[in-house]
Task: inverse folding
């Protein structure tokens, strides 16, 4: 199972919006509505930000939103804040043989 | 409050074995799938293995299949990862994570570092 494809880095100024893409195949992203997104600050454990493509867990700001079109999922962060600077990983269910596949990660820089 | 505390990491020689543990609290452990996810130094996240709540179903990444064994003791609220035939490329921080079926993981431990080196 190949990793999902994410841009290595994105950036934006405070208050702006950024979108991180996550491209897979019909066997993972396109085949199931089970895409999740994780935020990871340096030296910390990942934190779930979006599950099931569009759902926000309790406590996650509504500035974070998820979507999917075909084999590509996206995470949009609006009203960028300094604390949003982190690495972001997408993950998709990929069937019962190897259930999970991660993207390579995207480093978000808040300018 | 959900808590996941990994232990058992350390320095091990290539070809050696190591068992990681993850002590869980704050939720009904036996009702949830659990995952192991690793992160090599400076690299991204890699899913390693998953196990159903009952322990009957297990899943492995191709990179560890045949070398790693996931298990759980629901009476002790503990998840395990038995790692054998370790290679340098297994060097990573290993996280345990509480699963919601196989859809996502909503809570993660702080990780334990495994270093495979002679």
Result:
């Amino acid at each position: 199972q190949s990793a999902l494809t994410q841009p290595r880095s994105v950036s934006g100024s405070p208050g702006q919006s950024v979108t991180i893409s996550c491209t897979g195949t019909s066997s993972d992203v396109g085949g199931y509505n089970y895409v999740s997104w994780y935020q990871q600050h340096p030296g910390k454990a990942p934190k779930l930000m979006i599950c099931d493509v569009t759902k926000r867990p309790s406590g996650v700001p509504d500035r974070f939103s998820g979507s999917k079109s075909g084999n590509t999922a996206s995470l949009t962060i609006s009203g960028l804040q300094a604390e949003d600077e982190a690495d972001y990983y997408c993950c998709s269910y990929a069937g019962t043989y190897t259930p999970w596949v991660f993207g390579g990660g995207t480093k978000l820089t808040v300018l | 409050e959900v808590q996941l505390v990994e232990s058992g990491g350390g320095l091990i020689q290539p070809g050696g074995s190591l068992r990681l543990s993850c002590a869980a609290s704050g939720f009904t452990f036996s009702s949830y799938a659990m995952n192991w996810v690793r992160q090599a130094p400076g690299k991204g996240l890699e899913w390693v293995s998953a196990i159903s709540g009952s322990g009957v179903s297990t899943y492995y990444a191709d990179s560890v299949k045949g070398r790693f064994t996931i298990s759980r003791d629901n009476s002790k609220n503990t998840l395990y990862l038995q790692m054998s035939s370790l290679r340098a490329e297994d060097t990573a921080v290993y996280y345990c994570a509480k699963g919601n079926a196989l859809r996502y993981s909503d809570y993660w431990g702080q990780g334990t570092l495994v270093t495979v080196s002679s």
